[in-house]
Amino acid sequence: MLRSPDTMGEAAYGRARVGWEGCTVGDVAEELEPDAGDEGHVVLATAEGAPYASVRDRPIPREQRRTLGKALRKGTPRSSLGEWGEPPDRPDPIDQLATIHEGRIDWLVPLRVGRMMASPYGYLRGSAGVMARDLAGLPATGITPVIGGDAHLGNFGFYASPEQQLVLDMNDFDEAHPGAWEWDLRRLSASVWVAGRENGADEDACEDAVVACCASYRDQLWQLYEQPLLDRSFQWLDREQLLELASTKALRKRIDKASSRARSRTSDRALPRFTEEHGSQRRIVEEPPLITRLEEQERESLAEGVDRYLQTLSPHWRRVIGGYTLVDIAHKVVGVGSVGLRAYVALLEGSSPDDVLFLQLKQARRSVIAPFIHGDSAWHAHQGERVVEYQQALQTVSDPLLGWTTVDGRQFYVRQFRNMKGAIKLHKIKPHAMADYAGICGRLLAKGHARTSGASMIVGYLGSSDEVDVALSRFARAYADQTERDHERLVKAVAAGRLPAEHEV
C-alpha cells in the first residue's frame, strides 16, 4: 500500500494529484486543520503523529513525489513567490505589536520596544508575528515540513554538540512548527536584504546575497534529495567544514573570531562573570533590568519546576543533572523577540564549588505561525515540549540537556545557558562576505527542512533553474522596504506615546 506524502493532509494531497488550483498559506491551513468535533480544540500531544506511526506501508517513491512537487507550479508559479505589496486592509503593525505584548512582563515591554527601535533589522527580529500575518495571504505550495518559523540571519550560530565539538546551525526554535517552507526562506531572504542595507551595501550587493542564499538552499536540497533518508540525518557543519565552505577571507576571519569566543562561553568560564560569593555559597549577580533577583515564593516554584524538568530527560542525563544541587536562580532578559517573556538562569553546583552548570528556563508560548496552520482549533499539549521536539528535528545535533517543565501554569523549555553558544558578527561585514555567509545559512536551512520531510516535493517545485532565487530577491527587496516603513511607524508611535520605549545605554 502506498501512503500519501507525509508533509500534506489527505485533502491537500488530493489537490496536488490533480493539479494544484493555487492557494495561500491560509488556504493550506484550512486543508490541514484537524476536526475539532464537539470538544473544542484538538490537543496535539506530540509534534510527530500518525504519518510516522508504522513502517508497514510503503511511501510513494521519491521520484514520484518530485513529480508531484513540479506539478504544484501550475497553481503556484515560481515567479509568484516574489509577490509583495502592502494590502489596503493590512492591520496596523503597531496594534499587532500591542497584541504580541499581551501577557509579557509589563515593565520589560519598553525595553523590547527600545531594542526594536534601534534599527530596521532590530524591528524585523521582534516582529515575527507581524510577518507571519503578512505571509499568510501570499502564494504557497502547500508543502509543510517542520520549519524554524523565525529563520532570520541572527538565528544561526555556534553551539556545542554532545561530543563538545563546535557546530553551526539554526539555533532558535521558539516559533518552530510545521508550516510552509516558503515562510522560512522568505524571512531569511528579507533579513539578508535588511541587514545588507544596514551594513552599507548597495541594492545590487543585497540582491547578490539573497540569490546566494536561495541558490545554496536549492543546491543543498538537491544534494540531500539524492541521498538515503538515514544519511540526511547525519549532515552537520562543524567549524572546520565551515572554514572550507567560506570562500572569502573576510568571512573566514570572522568565523575564527566567533568560534574562539564561542569556545570560551562555558559554565565554568561564566562563574566569575555572573556570580558572587554570598555568605557560604555563590549567587547570581543582579544587573537590573537585565538580571533581577526573585521573591522566595517564585524561586521555590521554579526550583520545583527544575525537578519536574528532570523527568523529561533521558535516564542517563537525568542521573547526571540529578547529581547537581540548585544554589540560585534569577530572571535574565534575552534576545529581542523574547523580551518580556519569563526567562530564568539557574546555577547548579556539583560535588565541588568549581563544578557548576548554568541552565536556562525560557517561557514557551504558541508559535506565531500556528494560527495560520491550525487556526484556533489545535494546540500542542505543552509548548515547551513542542520547542524541544522541533529543535531536535531541525538540528543535526542538539543540546543533550534539552527538556521542558511547567511553573505556575506557564510552560517552559530548558537548555544549557552556556554551551559554547556564539554568533558570527555581521556588523560592517563586506558585501562579498555577506553573500558568502547568506549562502551558508541557506544551506543550513535546507538541511533542517530535509531532515523533517518534504525534500522531494520541494526539489520538484524548485527545479534546477534560478527562477525561485530571482523571485525571492524581488520579495526580499519589497519586504525590506516594508520593514523600513514599519520601523518608521514604530518610531513615530513611540514619539506619539502609543508605545513606551526604553533605550539601553
| Strand segment tally | 16
- The span between the termini is 64 Å
Integer count of domains: 2
The level of helicity is 40-55%
Unreliable stretches covering 5 or more consecutive residues: 1-23, 25-39
Helical element count? Answer: 20
Radius of gyration: 22 Å
- Basic shape: globular
* Strand order in the sheet with the most strands: 10-11-12-13-16-15
Largest sheet: 6 strands, antiparallel
- Assess the beta-strand content as a share of residues: 5-15%
Structural account:
There is one protein chain. By secondary structure, the chain is an alpha+beta fold. The protein folds into two domains: 325 residues, no CATH class; 150 residues, no CATH class. 46% of the residues lie in helices and 14% in strands. α3 packs across α19. 49% of the residues are buried.
Record the SSE blueprint.
Blueprint: E1 2-3, H1 10-17, H2 25-32, E2 42-44, E3 58-59, H3 62-71, H4 93-100, H5 109-117, H6 120-126, H7 128-136, E4 146-147, E5 156-160, E6 166-170, E7 177-178, H8 181-198, H9 203-225, H10 229-232, H11 239-245, H12 249-263, H13 267-274, E8 275-278, E9 281-284, E10 291-292, H14 296-310, H15 315-322, E11 325-332, E12 343-349, E13 356-363, H16 371-374, E14 378-380, H17 383-394, E15 403-407, E16 410-416, H18 431-452, H19 455-462, H20 467-495
Parallel strand pairs: 1-3, 2-14
Antiparallel strand pairs: 4-7, 5-6, 8-9, 10-11, 11-12, 12-13, 13-16, 15-16
Helix pairs in contact: 3-19, 5-6, 6-20, 8-9, 8-18, 8-20, 9-18, 9-19, 9-20
